[in-house]
Design a protein that fits this description.
Layout (H helix, E strand, L loop, with lengths): L6 E8 L13 H18 L4 H6 L2 E12 L8 E10 L5 E9 L5 E13 L8 H4 L7
Antiparallel strand pairs: 1-3, 2-5, 3-4, 4-5
Amino acid sequence: MAHTGCHTFDLEFAVRDYECDLQGIVNHATYLNYLEHTRHRFLHSLGLDFADLHSRGHSLVVTRLEVDYLASLRSGDRFVVHSEMTRASRLRFAFNHRIERLGDGADILRARVIGTSVSRGGRPGLPPEIAVLFGADA
């Protein structure tokens, strides 16, 4: 079994008016944008550039997404996305996310995003730049 080293990252946001639906709460799909932006920033913090990986033939893709919506955010709410990156299998990595509303500490969302990299030829696998994050046995 591969090393399951993990890395953590937090990113703070504020809800913008246009992200809310007619009910005055953040639309469910908008949370996925928050998570994706956090993943890109997370990778950048580890020295990985999403666009550079793609230009070199490593397209990072989501293969599975599980989301539990626990409470709602409203316009003006400040919140933080807490993220942890782990190895999910030989060919996959996972991001475990939790959104916490600042001020009252309410849990808003929990999600697990599974991904891999696909080569230009369509083969899955982790590029060396990501595999190395999980240790020498990656």
